[in-house]
Automatic annotation (TrEMBL):
Pfam families: I-set. Keywords: Cytoplasm, Disulfide bond, Immunoglobulin domain, Phosphoprotein, Repeat. PANTHER family: OBSCURIN LIKE CYTOSKELETAL ADAPTOR 1, SI:DKEY-31G6.6. SMART domains: IG, IGc2. Residues 8-93 form the Ig-like domain. It is found in: Cytoplasm. GO terms for cellular component: cytoplasm. It comes from the Eukaryota. The keyword Cytoplasm applies. This is Ig-like domain-containing protein.
Length: 135
């Protein structure tokens, strides 16, 4: 009786996330696969990406990453990381400034907002910080 081997499909366990970045900066797109030795291919707008002076492709454990150094306007677009069995996509947008929202959650259930006359389990306090690009 012979052995039956099943080849496990390469699936993404952590997808890529959309990124907004400033021109001239570096950014890294990261995702995770279910197998440490899985091969993936990176694409931008459907075209293969090769490692270069500005593009670094890495595989470390189950994490796969693609770094763009010194981002220019042509780097904006849709990026895909694909295996033979699955794919994940993210959009990279360039902007002259970035709004970062920091959310702090933590008021207790018993605390009340008097002007509303009601209780809340949590409340979010937001702080927006804008970073402007120097020309």
């Amino acid at each position: 009786m012979g052995l039956l081997f099943y080849k496990m499909k390469v699936k993404f366990t952590k997808p890529l996330e959309n990124v907004v970045s400033l021109k001239g900066r570096s950014l890294t797109l990261r995702c995770e696969v279910n197998k440490p030795k899985a091969d993936v291919q990176w694409l931008k707008d459907g075209k293969d990406i090769s490692p270069s002076r500005r593009h670094t492709i890495r595989a470390q454990g189950r994490e796969r990453s693609f770094t763009i150094h010194q981002i220019v306007e042509e780097d904006a677009g849709e990026y895909t990381c694909e295996s033979t069995d699955d794919r994940t996509r993210a959009t990279v947008i360039l902007t002259p400034y970035i709004n970062t929202i920091i959310i702090y959650v933590g008021l207790h259930e018993s605390q009340k907002l008097q002007h509303l006359g009601t209780s809340f389990k949590v409340i979010a306090i937001c702080l927006t910080v804008a970073y402007f690009q120097q020309e």
